[in-house]
TrEMBL record:
Name listed for the protein in its UniProt record: Molecular chaperone IbpA
Domain SHSP: 29-141
Keyword set includes Transport: no
Family per similarity comment: Belongs to the small heat shock protein (HSP20) family.
UniProt-listed InterPro entries: A-crystallin/Hsp20_dom, ACD_IbpA/B, HSP20-like_chaperone
Keywords of the record: Stress response
Amino acid sequence: MRQFDLAPLYRNTVGFDRLFSMLDQMVGVDAAPSYPPYNIERTGENAYRISIAVAGFTDRDLTVEVKENTLSVRGERKPSEERKVDVLHQGIAARSFDRRFQLADGVQVVGAALENGLLHLDLVRETPEAKKPKLIPISTNAAQTIEAKAA
């Protein structure tokens, strides 16, 4: 496992505390749960899709929740009362899970669909008008412009 010292970055940056704390948390990524497997795809300039393999789960067994900047997907397979069978070999994992994803500011979950054993979550990054770049006109006579704004 690699060790990264982020201390020099803390000294030279302002307002990136959350980013660095997330990087610190990723140090233990080898111990992170790997069930269920998932893909993260970019489907457009500001659109993404998370696909999670949830074979054996129905829509009633799954919960998708967004709280603050965390997307949580929980799966708990409820036993089927009408289908009482003795399982001789269980190769398809059906254990409960709780998978979490950290979302960047402005990323919204716009849809969820269960299809062919995959849960697809569609996300869109929406940039607020206040954060979009804007052009500032340049005046050739700065002293007059500043005086006009002050008045």
